[in-house]
């Protein structure tokens, strides 16, 4: 089907064709669908990103990449914390499919440190619970979990049926906190799968819960007093957080908490004693950054430690913020040291990667971040998009005031946060902040994916399976980045697919060592001759036959 040898390689030719492609694809849909999809498929335009339709419902019948609100809350934001028992209140499938598939890792400090990540806790709701209510079963599950493990905290996550039948997980949480007594922290999340249009709603609900139930409960100032930072939106997939912890430690930066890779209850409770919040994944955690700034006075900046140059940039930003010569010098020394191996491996990899094409369709931030790594490899991203990003993740935060709030967004609780009476403490004076801004430092800002993409390249929100097939057929990218749902369909078309959610079996990809890993993995994928040999079953046979195995 795909002849990889006759693919057009000239970027200008490609870009000219992209507009045509967009129209061809849209035309194939029924009229109403076509009208709607047209608003989510746009061409990037340098510094003037066009308006894109995002964070709206997927059209029924379209095969989407998206996940559900429960996945965003339980799987994404709270899942990576090792010492909370996360109980899924619902049918067993919801718990099972969110059990370890994301490859978020953790490292207990010693054998007394709790680690519940390898477990799957579920109330395993049955038909009778749906009919007669599941609250008693949930209470029983909490009692059982407490007796077995004596955790510091238990969180309850609602799945779709819980909302439909009206079980009140918050009431159960209060009841069980009283029953168990002591200082156990028990809290619930109304993160039913259907509550929002995607997992993005779950992030917001999780952020609210983090703020209400965990952040700010422990005021003790621990560890070194200088350079105290948090890293928000880093989930330790494939060990990313371990690499970033290593780099911070080497520079003498005190990373108090990452939200929530390799985290613990205590790290969340104590995070408000930091002097700077760095936001890595804007989509999933910008709410926590905003709330912590309002309540405690901690400024936040967007960082992006995916790619060796981007990691260096992040370190320089931290050093610039603290403005301490000692840190500035140390950071430069570490960058110089780390870059030696980075350059060696990159030079080797580039022999096979320069000029190759990539497409990235993942989540709400990686489709952007990973473009830096491809850039370092000399590859062009000709099409990219998020599954569930909002307009600000595409066009930049400046469009936030113009985003229309629809019924689906209103469904998510907005908590009002005010300045903490005793603990609000501006980390910098107005003048200091202004001086930093004059030097080019940007606070509370994210410019989105589109400004980085080459003019004329395709940006597609909530890519459908049909659109993906067409993109691959026409452009024959050298690597397609997406997730497990796309992986084998794409590979059957003779194109290697890199999972950018769980990294397949790879990682870490963050930081300097992560960049090295990525260069090697991508070099191997785009340089392998085997993909040309792959024939999908339908290319050899008129029809595909299968027999049942049971
Ligand atoms: Fe943020 Fe993530 Fe992502 Fe995300 Fe995700 Fe993920 Fe992702 Mo999968 S929090 S938005 S909801 S960076 S699980 S670690 S890879 S879709 S791009």
UniProtKB/TrEMBL annotation:
Q: What is its EC number?
A: 1.18.6.1
Which InterPro entries does this UniProt record tie to the protein? Nase/OxRdtase_comp1, Nase_comp1_asu, Nase_comp1_CS, Nase_Mo-Fe_asu
- List the catalytic activities from the record: N2 + 8 reduced [2Fe-2S]-[ferredoxin] + 16 ATP + 16 H2O = H2 + 8 oxidized [2Fe-2S]-[ferredoxin] + 2 NH4(+) + 16 ADP + 16 phosphate + 6 H(+)
EC class of the enzyme, as a word: oxidoreductase
Record key words, sorted: ATP-binding, Iron, Iron-sulfur, Metal-binding, Molybdenum, Nitrogen fixation, Nucleotide-binding, Oxidoreductase
Molecular function terms in GO for this entry? ATP binding; iron-sulfur cluster binding; metal ion binding; nitrogenase activity
- What this protein is called in its record is Nitrogenase molybdenum-iron protein alpha chain
């Amino acid at each position: 089907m795909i002849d990889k040898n006759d693919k057009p390689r000239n970027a200008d030719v490609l870009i000219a064709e992209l507009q045509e492609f967009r129209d061809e694809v849209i035309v194939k849909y029924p009229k109403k669908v076509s009208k709607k999809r047209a608003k989510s498929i746009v061409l990037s335009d340098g510094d003037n990103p066009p308006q894109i339709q995002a964070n709206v419902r997927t059209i029924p019948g379209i095969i989407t990449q998206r996940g559900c609100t429960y996945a965003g809350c339980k799987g994404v934001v709270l899942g990576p914390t090792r010492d909370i028992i996360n109980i899924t209140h619902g049918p067993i499938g919801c718990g099972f499919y969110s059990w370890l598939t994301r490859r978020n890792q953790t490292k207990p400090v010693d054998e007394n440190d709790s680690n519940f990540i390898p477990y799957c806790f579920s109330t395993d709701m049955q038909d009778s619970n749906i009919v007669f209510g599941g609250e008693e079963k949930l209470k029983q599950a909490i009692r059982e979990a407490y007796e077995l493990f004596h955790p510091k905290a238990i969180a309850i996550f609602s799945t779709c049926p819980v909302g439909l039948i009206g079980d009140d997980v918050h009431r159960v949480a209060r009841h069980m906190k009283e029953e168990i007594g002591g200082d156990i922290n028990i809290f619930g999340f109304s993160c039913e799968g259907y509550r929002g249009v995607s997992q993005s709603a779950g992030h917001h609900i999780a952020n609210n819960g983090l703020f209400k139930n965990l952040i700010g409960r422990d005021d003790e100032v621990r560890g070194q007093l200088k350079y105290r930072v948090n890293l928000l939106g880093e989930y330790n997939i494939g060990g990313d957080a371990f690499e970033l912890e290593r780099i911070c430690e080497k520079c003498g930066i005190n990373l108090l908490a990452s939200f929530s890779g390799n985290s613990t209850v205590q790290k969340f409770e104590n995070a408000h004693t930091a002097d700077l919040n760095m936001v890595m994944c804007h989509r999933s955690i910008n709410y926590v950054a905003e709330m912590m700034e309002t309540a405690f006075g901690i400024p936040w900046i967007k960082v992006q430690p995916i790619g060796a140059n981007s990691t260096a940039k992040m370190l320089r930003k931290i050093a610039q913020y603290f403005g301490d010569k000692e840190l500035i010098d140390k950071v430069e020394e570490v960058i110089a040291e780390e870059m030696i191996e980075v350059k060696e491996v990159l030079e080797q990899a580039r022999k096979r990667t320069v000029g190759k094409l990539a497409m990235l369709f993942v989540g709400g931030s990686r489709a952007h971040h990973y473009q830096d790594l491809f850039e370092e490899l000399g590859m062009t991203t000709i099409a990219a998009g998020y599954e569930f990003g909002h307009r600000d993740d595409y066009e930049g935060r400046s469009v936030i005031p113009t985003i229309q709030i629809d019924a689906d967004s209103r469904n998510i609780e907005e908590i009002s946060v005010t300045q903490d009476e005793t603990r609000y403490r501006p980390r910098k004076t107005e003048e200091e902040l202004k001086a930093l801004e004059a030097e080019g430092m940007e606070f509370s800002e994210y410019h989105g994916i589109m400004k980085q993409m080459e003019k004329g390249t395709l940006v597609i929100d909530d890519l459908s399976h049909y659109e993906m097939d067409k993109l691959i057929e026409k452009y024959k990218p050298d690597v397609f980045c997406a997730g497990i749902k796309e992986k084998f369909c794409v590979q059957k078309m003779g194109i290697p697919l890199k999972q950018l959610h769980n990294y397949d079996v790879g990682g870490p990809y963050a930081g300097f060592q992560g960049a090295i890993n990525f260069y090697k993995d991508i070099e191997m994928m785009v340089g392998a001759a085997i993909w040309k040999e792959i024939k999908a079953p339908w290319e050899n046979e008129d029809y595909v036959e299968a027999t049942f195995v049971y």
